[in-house]
Amino acid sequence: MKQSPRVLGRPRHDENAKPTKDIVLETATRLFIKEGYKNISMDDVAKACNVTKATIYYYYPTKGELYTSALIAMMDRIKLSILQILEQPKPFKERLQQLVEVHLSATIDIDMKNFMKEATINLSESQLRQVQASENDMYQTIERTMQVEMENGTIRKGNAKFFAHNFMALMTVGYLKDGDGKPLLGAVDKTAKEVTNFFWLSVQNNH
Amino acid sequence: MKQSPRVLGRPRHDENAKPTKDIVLETATRLFIKEGYKNISMDDVAKACNVTKATIYYYYPTKGELYTSALIAMMDRIKLSILQILEQPKPFKERLQQLVEVHLSATIDIDMKNFMKEATINLSESQLRQVQASENDMYQTIERTMQVEMENGTIRKGNAKFFAHNFMALMTVGYLKDGDGKPLLGAVDKTAKEVTNFFWLSVQNNH
Amino acid sequence: MKQSPRVLGRPRHDENAKPTKDIVLETATRLFIKEGYKNISMDDVAKACNVTKATIYYYYPTKGELYTSALIAMMDRIKLSILQILEQPKPFKERLQQLVEVHLSATIDIDMKNFMKEATINLSESQLRQVQASENDMYQTIERTMQVEMENGTIRKGNAKFFAHNFMALMTVGYLKDGDGKPLLGAVDKTAKEVTNFFWLSVQNNH
Amino acid sequence: MKQSPRVLGRPRHDENAKPTKDIVLETATRLFIKEGYKNISMDDVAKACNVTKATIYYYYPTKGELYTSALIAMMDRIKLSILQILEQPKPFKERLQQLVEVHLSATIDIDMKNFMKEATINLSESQLRQVQASENDMYQTIERTMQVEMENGTIRKGNAKFFAHNFMALMTVGYLKDGDGKPLLGAVDKTAKEVTNFFWLSVQNNH
DNA sequence: TATGAATGAGACTTCATTCAT
DNA sequence: TATGAATGAAGTCTCATTCAT
């Protein structure tokens, strides 16, 4: 049962080790993404980090707080990655395609709706507000670019928020597997092309 | 303590009353859709049905079984409703729009990905297979029509399954609310139009 | 470790057995009186009742609720016993003395201040209100008699509530043990006499 | 996370600052009196002192030891204050009244029975003995004076220990509040008078 | 057909205590 | 002198499930 008997008290400091707090957050994020809030217990997180539950609580006062932090950290990372890709001096369509490709490569299905639903049900109001703000931020990064490209005339005029959410929704379809568990549309790059193309056909400007 | 004293023994049979088994299934479906598998306890279901937990177990041997039945019943109903709409002698685009409209009117966000995720995590393999079969059935109803319309030349050639999932994904964006909790695109009919249009621009055949 | 392996489900009904709910309440009351709220765990109560924790929760939704019920039941019993003694057609002083005697005979030190302090700290507001109401009831039983005897001229005029609380405070001194653990004033009847006398000297009417 | 970033290492020594050990003891005493042993955690004490838990442990090896020290310190202080008041060259009744007044002014209800109960349950035997010795000391201070006044003929002959405990028991009734939270007998001086008078009527010598 | 009573496992959380620095 | 990091044990509560009636 005992995995690796740990000692009480402060562990001797290992110079190039990641701080436990970060390990916990990363591990928790991964687990929550894969299995959701209610299916992951604090003990699961602890075991995956090879520390005890109490250690988790030393850094995060409640499970809700840990989930909140995990979600926000995740969204921040996604937002950054989106930003970096969208800021490149490339045709818009190519940037979108790269966006899809990068995200499909992450292999974990990052389905925002799911997270937000679990957040709504399980978090406190203040935690929920934080998460919502973070989600909003993330989407706005895309929205703003959509807006710019509308003004450029690259894509047709429309509701930028609607476009952004549609894009993300289509993106998650890219994870779709067929009966045998193989990606429906083939390799990641091909899938990304198909997904982007589907979106593009809808938003491109035909004058 | 006693909340609503129920009579002991077998209740007198009310001719127009729905069988308990059906009440349980409907109630459970509603609750599971709204809050998910792990957030709804057998007691929650029992209370909402105004019976005891033991009664639920009389009809459904496990929670997983109840969830399975609820999901399948729901998908069957959706499938039927999809079928009825898609079979009508109307232009394809109009049928799609009606599809969206009907589903947005149901007000509960029926997000398949969510259900399937929870199913994957919480159900037994055999239960999961049943649910997957049912999901497949439901999508195939749309896929087949897509296929037909591709052959008709109404929409462009492409992967019908991919199209079907894209359509459903875009549909759930229709539930999107802005910061104030108001639908992003206005009333249901307007939203349905926008959503359908977005999809249509992507799939229409331009020869 | 296992005390007596119990079976799942509903136990066969034993005709002349006390209902579990009552057993729980009585046991809990005894334990809480002896050790206080925080020192008794739900598991302690369960073990003392030879049932599982879950059974306790089946009857009492929270520990606070169990404590509340226990306190109220106890105070009700005390109030009743007080009432019965005070209603007798005997000189007031004799009734008081019997009161002390009966309560010292119960051997457990029923120190109201203690219970009320723990209640204040650990109960919810609504629970606290219930307990306070019950405490008030109990004291008023004595107060009312004090009032009557003041009007009769048996005891001097004064604040009846103050008198009642003083009486109870002096009563708990009766439990006092010396260094060897022996009652300071000897046997219960002698102690009761001393305590009553102390109170009486203070309240008797000398015209 | 960090609430008030404290500087690392040994803090510069502030000449007029109280030693940490004393601060801890005083703070702990206050908290334990108000909420009791089990309701105050070492972390509570630490936070209230604005130091960390480990610091508390640096000065007091266990929670029981801290409680023991706190109780003893408190009783010592009380004993001293009692002594100073009782040693004055004033009529005994006036001294008693001042005793009540001083203690009611401290506003915190110092209910010995409570502390001794918690001590009995939670302390080790050796700790308990220390506390009992301290309690005994405190009461003996009063007892001795009672003894003297009995011999003087100021008060009637009786069990001095019993008298002392009765006096303290009546004193705590002085904290009594009515339903609105207002002191039952009015301002502190008036209350002290009433309480003393009640005691005095019982013990005074009428020859 | 339906219920009331009970359980065992596991969830979240708290807390006294330890130890390297 | 004081701290930050960590633990193990225990506490409150929830929940799917079982069984006699």
UniProtKB/TrEMBL annotation, chains A, B, C, D:
This is TetR family transcriptional regulator. The keyword Transmembrane does not apply. Residues 18-78 form the HTH tetR-type domain. Transmembrane segments: none annotated. SUPFAM superfamilies: Homeodomain-like (SSF46689). The keyword Repressor applies. Residues 41-60 bind DNA. Keywords: DNA-binding, Repressor. InterPro entries: Homeodomain-like_sf, HTH-type_Tx_Regulator, HTH_TetR. Pfam families: TetR_N. One of its GO terms (molecular function) is DNA binding.
